[in-house]
Amino acid sequence: PIRMEFDDLNTKSHEAEKDVNMLQIKIEEVNNNLSKYRKDMESRKRFIESKLQSLDRQSLSIYSYLKVLETTKEKRDVQKSKYNIADGMRQMFDPFERVARAHHVCPCCERPFSAEEEDEFVKKQRVKAASSAEHMKVLAVDSSNADSHFQQLDKLRMVYEEYVKIGKETIPNAEKDLHELTQELDLKSQALDD
């Protein structure tokens, strides 16, 4: 009977040792993963910050990414709006000229024009149309540049979201697992020592 009890204890002790070894392996694995996650996070941070610096010619931290993205989006929208307004104005010049020539009146207030006033009005419209076309070219470039800048920043969004997820979910979850495994290991180790 003592022999059987001893064998039974020996088997239990052997199983407990196996459990402890398994836990130690799991803990090592979680620690390796944590280390990998932190490196991964750091490399994403460096990538985003270097892109921010090359795009905005200033040193910005990853924490300002969303603000920079939002500001850039607003600038893009403002440029697009300026372009659209100018385009709307430009489209009025030709019809104004036609109305003035066809009806000999001001297209805005319908006041009759004298021949000289009409010629003067048409001349002004043509000058405005020409300068408007130049202005449109400038606005088109500005609008395109603002959009391109926004697109480049927006491309970083996925990397940024992964960075945030690693920091807010992946690492805390791994740390929680590590804590639970460490507690379990402490219990099993105590049981083994007893």
Structural features, described:
The protein has helices at residues 2-56, 65-103, 115-155, 157-193. It is an all-alpha fold and 194 residues long. Helix 2 (65-103) runs antiparallel to helix 3 (115-155). The chain starts with a helix and ends with a helix. The mean pLDDT is 92.
Roughly how many Å is the radius of gyration? 36 Å
Largest sheet composition:
none
Strand content: under 5%
Helix fraction by DSSP (H/I, runs of at least 4): over 70%
Tally of separate helices:
4
**CA-CA gap between termini:** 22 Å
Task: Estimate the mean pLDDT confidence.
Answer: 92
User: Which regions have little confidence, pLDDT < 50, spanning 5+ residues?
Assistant: none
**What does the overall shape look like?**
rod-shaped
Structural class: mainly alpha
Quick one: how many beta strands? 0
Which SSEs are present, and which pair or pack?
Elements: H1 2-56, H2 65-103, H3 115-155, H4 157-193
Helix pairs in contact: 1-4, 2-3
Descriptive terms for the model:
194 residues; single chain; rod-shaped; mainly alpha
In short:
The protein is mostly helical and 194 residues long.
